[in-house]
């Protein structure tokens, strides 16, 4: 149950990361339109609201729920700070939304009224009040854009520290590897490329290694073998990675019913230099699969390959001493 809860929390944290990164991309587009003088209410109206129908509202609620309902587990500084920052971004965005609406919908009406203002005192007072409202809205947009830009910039820097803290979150490392183009959009071409090196001491090789182990644990042997292969290409020879690669390739071939490849890959595991990586759970899995293959191969009239599978099963048990 504890592991299940940990997995749920890992996934929920990832959703917050995903939401924040995509919110930053959305804000970049809003800022660029503002800088060109083309920002409209429609550009921000669907991004933030207070009715639970916008990405930024959902991100704020997810963040509050995640960081404020940890039970007995203490809330770390980086966590409550991110909760505060995301909440602040949401409220600044709501104010920006309202100011943009004022300028887009009401300013044309105020200007029209200016051309038809009467002589009564209340009409003159209205005009002065409308002028102040529009001026405050214009200043609010400028200030809101500036505040949000600064908050997003600092939040992206803080995320890197959070990534370091959460480096063992298997879903996070997989997400970061799968979305490297997103990181380049958020952090820029060079820093986005270097983010994984800032998070993991072993750099990109360690990231692919961790992702491979995560996929292996989940039984995604095609993906684990792909990530182990990439990890091996990024550094010096690594016998443990080599063991995990051959094990994954063998399991992947087995589920594709390519038994000759399974036997070939696992035959390479019997070398002396890989012997120490034969943990019990790997050995039992290899033995079980080899005996199943032997049974099926005998039924198919392929005794030579069946005997090879049985021999491999016996060697695996001996590897454990």
Overview of this structure, please?
The chain has 321 residues and is mostly helical. It has 2 domains: 165 residues; 87 residues. 80% of the residues lie in helices and 0% in strands. It is built from 14 helices and no strands. The longest helix is centred in the middle third of the chain and has 45 residues. The chain is elongated, with a radius of gyration of 29 Å. The mean pLDDT is 90.
Count of discrete domains:
2
Question: What Rg do the Cα atoms give?
Answer: 29 Å
Give the DSSP E fraction (strand runs of 2 or more residues). under 5%
Percent range of helical residues = over 70%
Sketch the major β-sheet.
Answer: none
Poorly predicted runs are none
Mean pLDDT: 90
Shape: elongated
Alpha-carbon distance between the termini?
A: 34 Å
Helix/strand-derived category reads: mainly alpha
- Structure summary, number of beta strands: 0
Helix and strand sequence: HHHHHHHHHHHHHH
Q: Count the DSSP helices.
A: 14
Task: Please render the helix and strand layout as text.
Elements: H1 2-35, H2 41-45, H3 55-68, H4 77-115, H5 121-165, H6 170-178, H7 180-187, H8 189-199, H9 203-217, H10 221-233, H11 239-255, H12 259-267, H13 280-299, H14 303-319
Helix pairs in contact: 1-3, 1-5, 1-6, 1-7, 3-4, 4-5, 6-9, 7-8, 9-10, 10-11, 11-12, 12-14, 13-14
Observed structural traits:
2 domains; single chain; mainly alpha; 321 residues
Would you kindly provide a brief summary of this structure?
With 321 residues, the protein is mainly alpha-helical.
């Amino acid at each position: 149950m504890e592991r299940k809860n940990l997995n749920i929390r890992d996934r929920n944290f990832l959703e917050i990361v995903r939401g924040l990164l995509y919110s930053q991309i959305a804000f970049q587009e809003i800022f660029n339109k503002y800088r060109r003088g083309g920002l409209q209410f429609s550009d921000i109206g669907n991004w933030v609201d207070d009715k639970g129908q916008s990405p930024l509202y959902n991100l704020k609620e997810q963040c509050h729920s995640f960081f404020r309902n940890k039970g007995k587990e203490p809330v770390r500084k980086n966590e409550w700070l991110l909760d505060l920052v995301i909440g602040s971004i949401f409220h600044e965005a709501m104010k920006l939304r309202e100011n943009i609406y004022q300028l887009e919908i009401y300013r044309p009406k105020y200007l029209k009224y200016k051309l038809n203002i009467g002589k009564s005192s209340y009409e003159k007072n209205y005009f002065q009040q409308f002028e102040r409202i529009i001026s405050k809205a214009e200043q609010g947009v400028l200030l809101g854009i500036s505040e949000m830009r600064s908050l997003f910039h600092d939040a992206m820097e803080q995320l890197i520290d959070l990534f370091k803290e959460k480096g063992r979150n298997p879903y996070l490392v997989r997400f970061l590897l799968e979305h490297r183009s997103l990181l380049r959009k958020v952090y820029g071409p060079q820093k986005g490329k270097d983010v994984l090196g800032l998070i993991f001491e072993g750099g990109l090789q360690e990231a692919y290694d961790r992702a491979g182990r995560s996929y292996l644990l989940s039984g995604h042997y095609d993906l684990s073998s792909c990530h182990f292969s990439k990890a091996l290409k990024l550094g010096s020879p690594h016998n443990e990675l080599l063991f995990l690669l051959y094990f994954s390739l063998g399991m992947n071939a087995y589920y594709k019913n390519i038994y000759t490849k399974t036997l070939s890959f696992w035959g390479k595991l019997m070398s002396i230099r890989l012997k120490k990586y034969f943990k019990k759970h790997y050995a039992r899995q290899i033995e079980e699969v080899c005996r199943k293959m032997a049974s099926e191969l005998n039924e198919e009239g392929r005794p030579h390959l069946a005997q090879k599978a049985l021999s491999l099963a016996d060697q695996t048990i001996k590897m454990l001493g």
